[in-house]
Specification:
Blueprint lengths: L1 H10 L4 E4 L7 H16 L4 E4 L10 E7 L9 H10 L4 E7 L7 H10 L5 E4 L2 H8 L7 E2 L18 E4 L12 H7 L5 H18 L3 E3 L4 H10 L11 H10 L2 E4 L2 H9 L4 E3 L4 H9 L21 H19 L1
Parallel strand pairs: 1-2, 1-3, 3-4, 4-5, 5-6, 7-8, 7-9, 9-10
Amino acid sequence: MDEISTQIRLRRSHDFGIQGSYGTGNIGDKALGERFYEEIQARGRSVEMFNHTTESSNAPNRVLGGGGVLHDWYGTEHLKTRLAYATGGKKAFAIGVGVPGFQSPEGRDLASRVLPELDLITVRDEWSKSNIEAVCDTDVTVTACPVWLYDDPQEPTSDRTGINFRPYFGEKEDMSESALRDHFGYTDLENATERYIENIKRICKFVDNPVFIPFTPKDEKFAQKYLDIPIWPYTFSVEKTLKRVSNVERMVATRYHSLVFASICRKPILPLAYEPKVEEVAERLDLPYYKPHKDIKIEFVSPSGVDRLRTAARENFDLLFEAAE
C-alpha cells in the first residue's frame, strides 16, 4: 500500500516536491517535513513529500528540504540521488540544509558540477556555507533551520531536567569510522566512547530530577542500557516531544534538534556538541558548549537570539517562493 501511495503522489500534479528523510523515526527530521508541508500549503501552493530515495516526481519545483543532506560520508550514491531529484524539474532548490562537507574526489567533483545548477541554496549555518564554497563558486545564503518556526506549546513547567543523549560514536551507523576520525576529530573512538559514557552518567547524578526525552528509538534503547533515570517512552510525534521539552525546567541537549526544541521553549540549556553542527547552533544562541568526551562544566544558560533565528528560518520560504516565481 505504501508503494502504491508513493506512485500516486509521484504522478499527481503538485507545485512543489520536497525530498528528505522524514519518515526514519528521527523527530527532528519529521519536524522538518511538517514545517515544509505546512509553510508551502499556507501560501496556497500544492506540495508532496518524498523520502530520500526518490529520484523523480511530477513537480516543476524540486526541493531538498532541510537536514544535513549534502555530504559523502558513506559514499556518493545517496548524494547522486538527492541531486538528481532536485535538478530533475524546471527549478531546483536546496532549502535550509546542512552541508557536513565532501571528502572524496568523486563527491567534490559531483558537488562542484551540480550545486551551481541549483536556482537557490539556503543553508542553516556558516559552516555549511564554507563547505560548499570549498568545492564550488555559487551563491549561498545563510538562514536557519526551518524547525525554529514551531511555537512553544507553553506546557506547565515542572522541576525536571530534560535529558537527551544520542548513542555514542561507535553506534553512529549513519557515519563511517573514517568520517568520525578524519572529519570530526575523534581520533580514539574507544576512549571517546568511554569518556562520553562516564560524562553522561555524571551529569545524570548531578542534575535535579532528570528525565530522558528520546528523539529516536535508538535514543531510548541507549538510555535504557546506560542510565538509571526515568525515561519517557519514544513516540514518533513532534507535538508530543515538543510538549515534553516545554514541560521541563532545563535541558541537556545533545542531538541537534533537541537543542533547537529547547531554545524554542526558551529553556536554560547545557549543549553537548557531538558534531560541528551542534557547535554552530550553540554559538548562534550564545551558549557555551562542550565536547561530549571532554571535561564538561555542568551549568545551564538561557539562549539568546531565538527571535532572530525564527526570522532567519522564515526567510527560507520567502526566498523559495521568490525564486520559484
